[in-house]
From TrEMBL:
InterPro entries for the chain: RpiR-like_SIS (IPR035472), SIS_dom (IPR001347), SIS_dom_sf (IPR046348), SIS_GmhA/DiaA_subfam (IPR050099)
All residue ranges annotated as the SIS domain in the record: 33-211
Organism expressing this protein natively: Lentzea kristufekii
Entry protein name: SIS domain-containing protein
Taxonomic placement: Bacteria, Bacillati, Actinomycetota, Actinomycetes, Pseudonocardiales
Length: 246
């Protein structure tokens, strides 16, 4: 993404270049996160996933997804969803105290893992989520952009990257837009990069689980033959701890 000659027809190459950088940059951290998640699965723990604004797209990707982990509990508040009020959602993630309110109902335990998705990583909600979880002895994976955090106002006094156990860096540039290269105004890349990181993690998990003899609780698509039956045991096992499965 350093050339000034990229045109609209080359946008796909720009994205592929970025995702390659993301994969290479996070190789070691992804291994560490996979070990945390595998330990949580073996302890019958839960992965809690959280975000605000458009980072909730990443939360949706983690939950009740064909091929995804059944032990995922999304945590959020309606005020954080832009479709419930765009301006108010921005205000909500900048408000101190909301993270504690949300986590009180989450059942977070030390053998769980909290994923916090926030590309800017500077607002109270993501930072306080991470801090509160750490105070409870729960490991925190911050999925963020270190470069974006460096240029954003430090509203919470710290950044998500600074208070996380492990950081996955989506390498998103400040402002998120990527096109045109010399003066980007459109084509936000955070959702693509963050979803790619999550799937890179899933791939590592599959391989590590096979090596360790661990059976991962994976959803089947409800739209293939036998999918509902395959998912029934998972629903029975997790539904009491993950109310969003109701």
């Amino acid at each position: 993404m350093t050339t000034d000659t990229v045109t609209g027809s080359d946008y796909g190459n720009l994205v592929r270049t970025h995702l390659t950088r993301v994969e290479q940059h996070n190789a070691a951290a992804l291994d560490d996160v996979a070990e945390l998640v595998l330990a949580a699965v073996q302890a019958d723990g839960i992965l809690l996933t959280a975000g605000a604004g458009h980072s909730l797209a990443a939360v949706a990707e983690t939950f009740y997804r064909a091929g995804g982990l059944a032990c995922v509990r999304p945590i959020y508040h309606p005020e954080l969803l832009p479709m419930h009020g765009a301006i108010s959602s921005t205000s909500a993630e900048r408000r101190s105290g909301l993270a504690g309110e949300v986590l009180r109902e989450s059942g977070l335990a030390p053998h769980d893992v909290l994923f916090v998705f926030s590309t800017s990583g500077v607002n109270y909600y993501p930072v306080e989520l991470a801090q509160e979880a750490a105070n409870r002895g729960c490991p925190v994976v911050g999925v963020t952009s270190v470069a974006s955090s460096a240029q954003a106002p430090r509203r919470a006094g710290a950044t998500l990257a600074e208070v996380s156990t492990v950081v996955l860096d989506n390498l998103v540039p400040p402002g998120d837009s990527t096109y045109p290269v010399d003066a980007p105004v459109t084509a936000a890349i955070s959702t693509l990069a963050t979803t790619f990181l999550w799937n890179l993690l899933m791939v590592r998990l599959i391989d590590k689980a096979a090596e360790s003899g661990v059976r991962l609780p994976l959803w089947r698509s409800a739209n293939v033959e036998g999918g509902d039956a395959a998912n029934a045991d998972l629903l029975r096992h997790y539904q009491t701890r993950i109310p969003q499965l109701g």
